[in-house]
């Protein structure tokens, strides 16, 4: 495989050509999207009740027989299941996400409005979580056994805190008691603070734990010792060598973390009355809005695939050893 | 929980006094009357009221489409009905001026007020009302509540600009009550000709406010209708609303809504939870409006179509085996009052029979022995022919608030002492309906709002046990009693008011004495609002607040 020509196209961290790597990622992504679409298609039909009734305004709407029949034929629900399934796959493949049953507007249009606020929330939460995790990890490793134990304890507790509880406590303290931050989220710094912290804190605890273990290991490793021997300061060792090591597992986890942020958004967007994918997924599931549920799930899956690929890429760039062995 | 006692004792000096107060409070869902608490100061014009709703965000702002309570809440600000209720709870003409019915009850003439226009400039007249009824009855509109309310109309004709003649399939003395519901509100016929999507986004009515814009999952912006004409000049001040605008926000989480009210971000919240109400009662800057919904009380229905509740003895035993009152007091912090009626306390014809209910384990034990459930299994549950006395109780998490779910759990605990097993299943709305459609329940609690005692026909007539094509049926206790059917049919068609009352009383007696339901309390409809908001208290016939007379003080 390693012909001179192929070797010359190698980028850092890639044993194969980056193009091949990219194609592999795209193929894997398509497989994931197909699996998600299939699981939702069949899964949602297992729930008792009639999708036509969801179209007619939800369960118990007492729609007349002719109205239901009309809805069934309009949305193709009267066709055999396999026809519906392949029809759905074809439409999804051609980029048609269908029309929301409850909102009566194209799903792609609704998603276009809801993706940005959720993305802002998730990206900010990820950045804040990284910052918090780094600070706690660095401070605690540099302040002896007691500091380390303290940091570890803090991380374990915050990693275990449920979003729902944390959000309620933050609202109680910062909105009701102190009156500093609004309980209802807007896209301003003050309006974003509480939801971002709610999402970031448990994540920071998780990332911090992983980061600190690697950091301590790196501080004791041979390259750190040799760097110190070369006269490098502790800060220099940390910045130039150890942090890079500590970041690796955290980068690998960030893909997973982003997925968890999307599920956390369901809770956080509802509590802080913030428009977004999570909140709309919740209401779509309750109202059996199949096109909306499918659309939100596919978008989340696609985001997950992209983020996983990006974190893989970041990992390879941070540690050129990966993929070259 | 520790707060519950002193508060309950403060709020409930005596159960009877409170029941009486509640009837009075119930009457205050008055159409356009200023609130009785006596607001001082002269009204201030201007300002934007921010309302925070915890009800689901409507998929369509036109309550003709579908027809649920969240739609009624917001539509009451921009749409008006033919009838409404006054301060005493009596039905009064609103956009209608008068109505008469023929001796055979089959022809009804409705006189429409003149000089009123919709906010798009279209004039209100008999043709406009006819267009609304046609819109409601058209299957393409997918109306449920309004469609059912107008079900008896066979044909209609605008005789002249202000006269609408309705021909009915059979007499219907609840028609004016139906006309008072927001789900049968009158919209501009010009606007109704637009696509359904356009009309859903911004319905056009005659109300004191109009829809300006709708940001999904966030808020609906309503602005003052500058050309507002009050249909009944006796009912409020002249001119338009005092407020410039209303921002109708959707804040699903109860704690967040209350925090937003405390922070001054919003001035009024609905779906206030018992703990927040109890806290607000001690806070001078927050006021409380208790406006119970009309129609049925909140109740647990006993499925009489299959064992074990096909035996009236077991139904009666269940009623005496559960301790409801103590739980309601503690879980609802004294904000909910026990009901002993199938109807809401705001229904003038509600019959209350406290003597039939009550926690009595000895009586329950005797009844169960008599019914043959005399054996006990290793876990202490009653057994008959090798089968445990087990009751399936699907609970919709989106319809039962946490306090109510706790109440059901406490009922479960007390029933166990009498050897009855209650299996509570917490379900999302779709799955909950699934259990109902497949008759997979013994106990169920479902809300139902309709103006007037005719809701009894919806809930207890044997016709309502036949599922609609969607699988839904409203008679969840599955009572099939020809004598009850006859009473309900006669009550719905008689022209004699005294006879109507007598027939509905007999009908209620039958369902209560048959132990088909366990009444709990009025459908909870609590609003908390800032003391800066003056003259809150005016509500429509279905107890949704209106803000025509309301102003914001500085």
Q: In brief, what are we looking at here?
A:
The complex is a heterodimer of chains A (325) and B (554). Chain A has 325 residues and is an all-alpha fold.
Instruction: Give the end-to-end Cα distance of chain B, rounded to a whole number of Å.
Output: 36 Å
Shape of chain A: flat
Shape of chain B: globular
Instruction: Report the total helices of chain B.
Output: 18
What is the residue-averaged pLDDT of chain B? 89
Structural class of chain A: mainly alpha
- Number of helical segments of chain A? 13
> How many structural domains are formed by the residues of chain A?
2
> What's the CATH class of the largest domain in chain A, please?
Mainly Alpha
Secondary-structure element string of chain A: HHHHHHHHHHHHH
CATH architecture annotation of the largest domain in chain B: 3-Layer(aba) Sandwich
Task: Give an overview in words.
The complex is a heterodimer of chains A (325) and B (554). Chain A has 325 residues and is mainly alpha-helical. In chain A, 76% of the residues lie in helices and 0% in strands. Chain A has helices spanning 4-9, 18-46, 51-55, 65-74, 81-93, 107-141, 144-160, 163-177, 189-220, 222-229, 234-271, 277-286, 290-318. In chain A, helix 8 (163-177) crosses helix 9 (189-220). Chain A starts with a helix and ends in a 7-residue tail after the last helix. With 554 residues, chain B is an alpha+beta fold. Chain B has 2 domains: 11-291 and 525-552, D-Maltodextrin-Binding Protein, domain 2 (3-Layer(aba) Sandwich); 298-521, Dipeptide-binding Protein, Domain 3 (Dipeptide-binding Protein, domain 3, Roll), CATH 3.10.105. Chain B has 18 helices and 23 strands. A 7-stranded mixed sheet of chain B has the order 8-9-10-1-11-21-12, with helices on both faces. A 4-stranded antiparallel sheet of chain B has the order 4-5-7-6, with helices on one face. In chain B, helix 11 packs antiparallel against helix 13 (361-370). Chain B starts with a helix and ends with a strand. At the A-B interface, helix 3, helix 4, helix 6, helix 8 and helix 12 of A face helix 8, helix 9 and helix 15 of B.
């Amino acid at each position: 495989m390693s012909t001179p020509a192929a070797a010359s196209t190698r980028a850092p961290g890639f044993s194969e050509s980056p193009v091949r790597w990219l194609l592999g990622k795209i193929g894997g992504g398509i497989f994931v999207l197909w699996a998600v679409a299939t699981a939702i298609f069949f899964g949602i039909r297992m729930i008792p009740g009639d999708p036509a009734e969801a179209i007619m305004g939800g369960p118990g709407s007492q729609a007349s027989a002719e109205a239901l029949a009309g809805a069934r034929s309009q949305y193709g629900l009267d066709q055999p299941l396999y026809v519906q399934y392949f029809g759905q796959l074809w439409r999804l493949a051609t980029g048609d996400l269908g029309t929301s049953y409850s909102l009566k507007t194209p799903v792609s249009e609704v998603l276009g409005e809801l993706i940005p606020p959720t993305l802002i929330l998730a990206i900010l939460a990820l950045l804040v979580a990284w910052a918090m995790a780094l600070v706690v990890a660095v401070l605690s490793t540099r302040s002896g056994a007691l500091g380390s134990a303290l940091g570890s304890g803090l991380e374990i507790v915050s990693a275990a805190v449920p979003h729902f509880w944390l959000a309620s406590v933050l609202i109680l303290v910062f909105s009701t008691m102190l009156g500093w931050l609004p309980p209802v989220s807007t896209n301003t710094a003050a309006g974003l603070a509480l939801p971002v912290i709610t999402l970031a804190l448990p994540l920071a605890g998780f990332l911090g734990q992983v980061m600190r273990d690697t950091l301590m290991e790196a501080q004791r490793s041979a390259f750190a010792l040799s760097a110190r021997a070369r006269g490098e300061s502790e800060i220099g060792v940390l910045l130039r060598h150890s942090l890079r090591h500590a970041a690796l597992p955290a980068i690998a986890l960030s893909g997973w973390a982003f997925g968890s942020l999307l599920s956390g958004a369901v809770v956080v967007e509802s509590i802080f009355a913030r428009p977004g994918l999570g909140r709309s997924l919740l209401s779509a599931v309750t109202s059996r809005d199949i096109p909306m549920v499918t659309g939100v799930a596919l978008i989340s899956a696609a985001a997950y695939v992209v983020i996983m690929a990006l974190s893989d890429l970041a990992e390879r760039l941070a540690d050129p050893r990966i993929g070259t062995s | 929980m520790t707060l519950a006692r002193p508060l309950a004792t403060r709020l409930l000096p005596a159960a009877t006094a409170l029941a009486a107060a509640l009837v009075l409070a119930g009457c205050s869902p008055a159409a356009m009357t200023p609130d009785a608490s006596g607001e001082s100061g002269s009204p201030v014009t201007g300002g934007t009221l921010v309302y925070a709703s915890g009800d689901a965000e409507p998929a369509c702002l036109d309550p003709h489409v579908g027809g649920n309570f969240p739609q009624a809440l917001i539509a009451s600000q921009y749409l008006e009905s033919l009838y409404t209720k006054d301060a005493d709870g009596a039905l009064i003409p609103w956009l209608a001026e008068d109505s008469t019915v023929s001796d055979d009850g089959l022809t009804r003439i409705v006189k429409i007020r003149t000089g009123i226009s919709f906010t798009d400039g279209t004039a209100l007249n008999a043709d406009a009302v006819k267009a609304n009824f046609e819109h409601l009855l058209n299957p393409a509109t997918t109306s449920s509540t309004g469609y059912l309310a107008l079900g008896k109309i066979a044909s209609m004709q605008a005789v002249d600009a202000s006269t609408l003649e309705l021909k009915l399939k059979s007499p219907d003395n609840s028609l004016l009550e139906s006309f008072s519901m927001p789900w049968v509100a009158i919209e501009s016929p010009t606007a109704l000709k637009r696509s359904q999507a356009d009309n859903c986004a911004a319905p056009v009515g005659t109300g004191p406010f109009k829809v300006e814009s709708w940001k999904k999952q966030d808020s609906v912006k309503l602005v003052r209708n500058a050309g507002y004409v009050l249909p009944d000049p006796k009912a409020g001040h002249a001119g338009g609303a005092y407020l410039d605008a209303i921002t109708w926000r959707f804040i699903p989480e109860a704690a967040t809504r209350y925090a937003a009210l405390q922070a001054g971000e919003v001035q009024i919240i609905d779906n206030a939870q018992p703990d927040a109400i109890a806290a607000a009662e001690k806070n001078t800057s927050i006021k409380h409006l208790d406006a119970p919904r009309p129609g049925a009380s909140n109740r647990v229905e006993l499925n009489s179509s299959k064992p074990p509740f096909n035996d009236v003895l077991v139904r009666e035993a269940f009623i005496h085996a559960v301790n409801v009152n103590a739980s309601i007091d503690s879980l609802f912090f004294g904000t909910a009052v026990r009901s002993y009626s199938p109807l809401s306390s705001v229904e003038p014809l509600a019959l209350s029979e406290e003597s039939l209910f009550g926690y009595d384990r000895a009586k329950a034990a005797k009844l169960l022995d008599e019914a043959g459930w005399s054996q006990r299994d290793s876990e202490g549950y009653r057994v008959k022919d090798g089968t445990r006395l087990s009751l399936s109780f699907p609970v919709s998490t989106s319809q039962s608030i946490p306090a109510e779910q706790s109440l059901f759990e406490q009922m479960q605990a007390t029933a166990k002492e009498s050897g009855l097993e209650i299996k509570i299943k917490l379900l999302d709305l779709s799955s909950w309906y699934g259990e109902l459609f497949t008759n997979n329940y013994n106990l169920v609690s479902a809300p139902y709002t309709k103006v007037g005692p005719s809701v009894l026909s919806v809930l207890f007539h044997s016709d309502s046990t036949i599922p609609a094509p969607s699988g839904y049926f409203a008679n969840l206790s599955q009572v099939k009693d020809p004598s009850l059917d006859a009473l309900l049919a006669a009550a719905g068609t008689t022209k004699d008011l005294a006879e109507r009352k007598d027939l509905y009383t007999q009908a209620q007696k039958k369902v209560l004495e048959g132990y088909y339901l366990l009444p709990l309390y009025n459908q909870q409809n609590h609003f908390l609002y800032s003391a800066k908001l003056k003259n809150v208290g005016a509500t429509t016939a279905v107890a949704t607040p209106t803000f025509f007379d309301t102003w914001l003080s500085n």
